[in-house]
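User: I'm curious what two different proteins look like when written out as structure tokens. Can you demonstrate?

Assistant: Sure. I'll show them one after the other, since each token string lines up with its own sequence. Here's the first protein:
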Amino acid sequence: MYLQLKYILSVLVLSLLTYQVQCSLKRVKRIVGGSAVENEEKLLSAVSMQILNKTGHPMHFCGGTYVGNGWIVTASHCLTINMHEKHDIFVEIGSKNLYEDPQKLIEINEIHFLPFDTVTYSNDIALIRLPEAYTDLPGNVGLPHNPVPVTEYRDCSIFGYGSVEFLREISAQFREAPIEIQTAQACAEALVPYAPDYNLGMFCAGGGHTDACQGDSGSGLICSGLLVGVVSYGSSCGVPGNPGVYTTVQHHMEWIEKIM
């Protein structure tokens, strides 16, 4: 078993691809075992993070969740592993399909992230602030201000533009799938010796036939309208007995509230 962060595996490889509408967004993680999002309200929170390749065409590399007031929540590793600067990154919000329903690419105003720990994979969370002109964009996903244990959340789903199968192209279509949050014990038993430390603000979800996959890094796990988790890493996609690992948003709310 090896662990993989669920973002584009190599931006350098992607930048060498010849641009085509069907292939400008390659090797990213999409929702496994889900369905296309048709609900316009749910699309309000849909975020695709993109960089331009050498021919100037956008490529999706990570997801995120728009939480209103011009703020996006994503994963720290999306921004730090390849050392992306804010002037290199654009975001697309609200697209049903990145190929067929492209929305305006928005530049980034600010990036805030905690120091991502490459050993424990903790602190895998970041905030992106949009320019002032976009602070009035409506959102429909809230932040978990109340300290509820993550295992008590129900009615949860994961969202993203990533692959529907391990090491395949991204779907480009915004998708969702229902998912169940695992207890710390179940997570530890499933992911020995790579289980996350729930006390460091991480948790497991899935382990059945629904999962996040390449290109879904930074995307949201949402329960009853609250952003509970951020896609971080996993050993595969949609393999029974192998849950994915998520950053616990509530664990980082003190930091988030200071910035927002």
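Here's a second, unrelated protein for contrast:
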Amino acid sequence: MTARRFFVILILLSLSLLSVLFISNTVKAQTETEPADNFQLQAYLTEEQALSLVFPECDEILTDEFVMSPEEKSSLEKLLSRRSYEDGFRVYIGKKKGILQGYAIITEEIGKFHPFTFVVGVGTDGKISNVAVLVYRESRGGEIAKKRFLYQFMGKSFKNPIRINKDIINITGATMSVQCMCAGVRKVLAVVDEYYLSGKRNVSDLKVVSDNAAISVKEKPIEEINKSKNAKNNKTPSSLKGDSGGLSEVKLLKQTRMIMGTFAEVTVYSNDEKTAGKAIEGALDEMGRMDRIMSNYKKDSELSRLNRNAVKAPVPCGAELLDVIEKSQYYSELSDGAFDITISPFVALWGFFDEKGHIPPNKEIDRLLPAVSYKNIVISKSVDPKKPSTVFLKNTQTQIDLGAIGKGYAVDKALEIIKNFGIDNACVNLGGNIYVLGASAGKNTWKIGVQHPRNKDEILGYLELKNEATATSGDYERF
């Protein structure tokens, strides 16, 4: 690879990665409103019913609770090749006439935003005997609760790989939920294998949870389960004081639009649905307004007009667009040109605008190199507040592309709108540029999944954020 080509590729990659420094035609979708803690239509089983499914023939169910030492937790994490968020487990042991029948763990995994609760039953041979979802809280991906999906786990042990699209068929539109279910099942298998099948834990003298625990799953309808859960939830910290001074239920409100050529999603937890709805609308409108200023796809945007005319003579520039350009210049100086918003000619040369990506010949790169330099941007600040500042592009082929900074800037603006409505817990996501406020309901943080760069069906890991921002990008987005 020539030094020239290396330099150009470095600029392209840095434009994607530098966006993390700046997280600080619109199609509307209906606002989704869901209870924060139990999503009424997605509660399937009580704990008792779940255990009866796993131990249908047992006449007693015992419980064993333990806390792992730091060394034990580290060992489990090595087995799972991922971080464990639990410090210990409650394990249920089923017996029939005193004879051990199997083990079960009721656990949680967090999907895109919210935890879902499920039980995994494991036989004395270390193989899965049953899997069932108790409560699913995400607004999408509920198909993982269906028997035809869960049946795929039956008979698997810790020695078996559990991989999406290889061992477990994926569900379109629910990849993250499937990934989390696979991770949770493997976690339970590891705990049972490491502590019980190995004989490390003594199950001969345990507390009895239930005698004759097999309760008919059909005994209680789902509606009754949900009513029971709602009554409990009204007494939990997930309920906040409303205007009347009493307790009102925190709700999840979410709305999605297409902005800047990608999905923009605003999620809010609030006990004031009307105010939250206005905050979401305001945040999305603000990102749409930023798109009309900074888009280089929209011919009538302020940036497009500047690109057309500033190569001829200095043109007036609005305060917000100028602010973004000046901040971009700062990062260009800081990175000695590795971050450069004049990358647009190369973006076009590589075919990214028309979705025909290719690596161009060196002579074409040489021809455009003089046009790609942040030093071609000449800003003349006006000392008179009544007169606008101007921008001039010294090279006739220089064009500005704010793709590496514009989404983050828009997210910053959107979050300010949300704060102005008095919202304390929210998440703004614009094409992978994410800024969170407060925490997810019932949690201390927002948990954000990071896609594996080489396997779109896998989650590489999670980020726990509170009043923080992140952005993910990489070469896999274009090539």
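A detail about the second structure: Residues 16-41, 211-247 have pLDDT under 50 and may be disordered.
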